[in-house]
Amino acid sequence: MNELFRSAAQGRFGRKVKHERGAKIPVTLLTGFLGAGKTTLLKHFLSTPEGAGTAVVVNEFGAVGIDDALLRTSSDETVLLGNGCVCCTTRTDLQNALRSLVIERDRGVIPDFRRVVIETSGLADPGPILQTFATDRALGDLFHVELMAVVVDAATGLATLDRAPEARKQVILGDLLIISKADLCDAKALAAMEQRIRALNSRAAIVTAQHGVIDPQRLLESTVERTAFVAEAEHSDLVRSFVVADDEPIRWPIFARTMETLAALRGPDLLRVKGFLDVEGCTGPVLVQFVQHLAHPPVELTAWPDGKRGSRLVFITRNLPEAQVRGLFAAVKALGG
Amino acid sequence: MDAKNPLNAGPSAVTWNFKLLAQHELGGFGGMGEGMSITIAKDGRRIMWLAHESAPKNFTGVDVSDPRNPRVVVQTDLPKPYMRSNSLECSANGIMAVAYQTQKVGQQPAGMELFDVSVPENPKSIAFFDTSGAHSRGVHQLWFCDGDYVHMASGAPDFEPTHPNDDQFYRCIDVRNPSKPVEVGRWWLPGTKRGDNVVPPPRHPLDKGYRAHNTNVYPQKGDRLYLTYIDGGMFVMDISDKSKPQVVTHWTNSPPYTGFMHTALPLFGRDLMIVTDESTENNAEDWPKLIWVLDARDEKHLVSIATCPMPPVEAFKDRGGRFGAHNIHENVPLPTSWNSEDIVLGTFFNGGMRAYDISNPYAPKEVGAFVPPAPKGANPGAIQLNDVFVDERQIVYTVDRHSGGLYILETGF
C-alpha cells in the first residue's frame, strides 16, 4: 500500500499471523498409490464432524466410491455430498477447479466450505501440485497447503516403493504417512513397512489406519512444524534431506540472494525447502517455503514456537549435497557482510 | 429454512479460525445487550461486565480470569419490568456507568447509574443521574473510559422532539465527582427539537429515528467525538469546548441505504475509519447492513473506500431473526482492551461474529467466522450475536441477544 494507510503493527512481510496459514483456506493433499485406500479414508473423514464443510477436489478420472454418494447440482463439475461437503471432480485442471469452488461459494451457488481436500491420482507427482499454489498468485493468496498426507498400503506398499520412483517421492515429500490396510497384515510386515518409510522420511508423522479409519484431526493439521527437525540419512534416487540451522539472525537480503542463486542454478533439484528464519529486524519467525524454483511469499508469525529463536530450514534436494548449500550460504553472507 | 436451497445443504454452524473455549448461559438469563467491559479486581480477578438486553436482569459480572471456565460472580435485577440496561462501560478507576432506558416516554426510573465495582460481588451505587421526562425514554448507549466524563445517547426532561422517534441526543456528563454528576454539554441534530429554527429532517422508509447511538471519544484525539445518529448518519464533532460541541463532518450512506448508523471507530494510526450499520429487521428485509471502511485522511472529507464482505444473504435470510452488521470491537482505550488497526471484528446477528483483515483497506478480507448453533430457547430459531469485545490477551467475547449468553473464543488468525 506504499505509505497510504500504513499500519505500524505490520512488519516487513505484512500483518503478522498466528499460524502459517493465516486466514487462507487450508488444503490437505491426499496422495498415495492406486488402491492404497485414499478414497476409503476420505469417505470416513467426510462422515465425521471434523469433515463437515470440506470441499473435495478429485484430481483424476474414474474415481470410484464417491460418486454413489453424490447429489448433483446445476454445475457439471461441482457436486454436493450428503453431509453438505462439496465435491469437484476435475476434468480440466486443478487451478480451474479451485477457482470455480471459490467463485461459486462467493456467488452463493454452493455452501460455505472451510477446507479443501485434494485427492490426487495414484501416479501423481505431488511436486507440480505444490507448485500450483506458489505460481498462481490468486490461488496462493486464497489457499494454503496445510498438510500433505500419503497413504501407503501395508500389504503391497513395499513392492510399490521398490518399483516406483513416484511412490518414493510421495513418501519423501509427505508430512503425514498413513499406513493403510494394517488389519490385513501381521505385525512383522507392519514393522517392516514403518521402517522403510521412516528411512525415506524421518520428519513425517506416521499413523496406522485400521479399516480405513484414522483420527480425523490428523488430516486437518500438520504436526511436523511443531516437532524438532531431524536430519536424515541419504535416500535412494539421490534424494536427501538435511537441516540448516543458525542461532544468529540472518539479514533478509542475504537469504533472498542465496535462495535466488540456488533456485536459478539448481531449481529442479530443490524438491522442497521449508522452515523458520530468524530475520534481522523481525520479532517473530519468518516462514519460508520453496518448491523447486518457486518461492511462496514469506509470512511472519506473531511468536516463536516454544519461545525458541533461531533459523531452522529443512532442505529436500536431489543430487545437491548439504555441503554445497551451506557453502553457498556462507559465501553470500561473507560477500554481503 | 428452504430445504431446496443448496446453500442450506451444509451445516449452519461454522467455526473458522476461532476456537470456542467456553459458553455461559448466565443462569438462564442469556439475552444480552451491547455493554461489555472488563475490570481487574484488587485480587487480580478479571471481571467481564455484561449489560442485559432487557428486564428482568440489569447487569452480570463474570469472572473470566480462566477463559475456559467463566464463573458468574454477581447478577443484578432491574427495579421495573419496562426498563432495559442495554449499555454499560467501566473506567480504569473501577467505576461502572450503566444506561437505563424505558419502553415508553415518561416512565421512571430512566437515566444513568454509577457503581463502584471494586468488589465485584458487591457493586455499590454511587449516584443516579435522572434523564426521565415527558418525552424521554432515558439512556440507550454510553461511553465512559476516562473516568471523568460519560458521553451518552439520552433523552432529557427539558427536550421535546419534533418527532417521537428522535428523543435521544448527545449529552456529556461530568462525573469527576462521581457522587454528583452534572451535564456539561449537549448536541442534537438541528430540526429534531421542538422550537428549532430549522425544518425537521425527512423521514426514512423504516423511520428508526434521528437519534444518537454511539458516542465514542478516544484519548488519541480527545477533542473529537465520533457520534452516530441512526437515520441521520454519522458526525465527527469538535468537543474541545464540551459545552458547545460543533460539527466537523457529516457522513451518511442513507438514502439510498436504509439508515440506522450504529458505530464510528477511528483508526488514528492509519487515517481510516470503520462505520457500521445495524440490522433491525427480521429475514434480512433491511439488507444490506454493512461494515464500511472510510478514508479519513481528511476528516472533513470522508470517503467510503470499501465494505467488509458479507456471506451470501440467500444462505442466511431465512434462518430466523436478523442478518446484518451491528456492533464491532471498538478499541476501547483501556489496558484491558485489545487495540488493532488491522483486524475488525463484528457481530452480524444470525450471520454470527466475523473477523476481517483490513491490511489492504480497499479489499477487506474475512479471516475468521463464528456462527454457533441456535442456543437453547432461541426464539428466532437461530443465533443472534449482538456484541463483541476483545481483551488485551486477544481473547474474544461475544454475546447472544436472546438466550445464548456469553461465548469466549481464541483467535487463529
Task: Give short descriptive properties of this protein.
heterodimer; A: 337 residues; alpha/beta; Rossmann fold; Hypothetical Protein Yjia, Chain: A,domain 2; 2 domains; nine-stranded mixed β-sheet; six-stranded antiparallel β-sheet; 15 strands; 29% helix; B: 413 residues; mainly beta; Methylamine Dehydrogenase, Chain H; five-stranded antiparallel β-sheet; four-stranded antiparallel β-sheet; 1% helix; globular
Could you outline the blueprint of secondary structure elements for this entry?
The complex is a heterodimer of chains A (337) and B (413).
Chain A: E1 25-32, H1 38-46, E2 54-59, E3 70-72, E4 78-81, E5 86-89, H2 94-106, E6 115-120, H3 126-135, H4 137-142, E7 143-153, H5 157-163, H6 165-173, E8 176-180, H7 187-200, E9 205-208, E10 239-246, H8 252-266, E11 270-277, E12 286-291, E13 294-295, E14 299-300, E15 311-318, H9 322-336
Parallel strand pairs in A: 1-6, 1-7, 2-5, 2-6, 7-8, 8-9
Antiparallel strand pairs in A: 3-4, 4-5, 10-15, 11-12, 11-15, 12-13, 12-14
Helix pairs in contact in A: 5-6, 8-9
Chain B: E1 14-16, E2 18-24, E3 32-40, E4 46-52, E5 57-63, E6 71-77, E7 83-84, E8 88-90, E9 95-102, E10 111-116, E11 124-130, E12 139-143, E13 149-154, E14 169-174, E15 182-187, E16 215-216, E17 224-228, E18 234-238, E19 246-251, E20 261-267, E21 272-277, E22 291-295, E23 303-307, H1 313-316, E24 343-347, E25 353-357, E26 365-371, E27 385-390, E28 395-400, E29 406-411
Antiparallel strand pairs in B: 1-26, 2-29, 3-4, 4-5, 5-6, 7-9, 8-9, 9-10, 10-11, 12-13, 13-14, 14-15, 16-17, 17-18, 18-19, 20-21, 21-22, 22-23, 24-25, 25-26, 27-28, 28-29
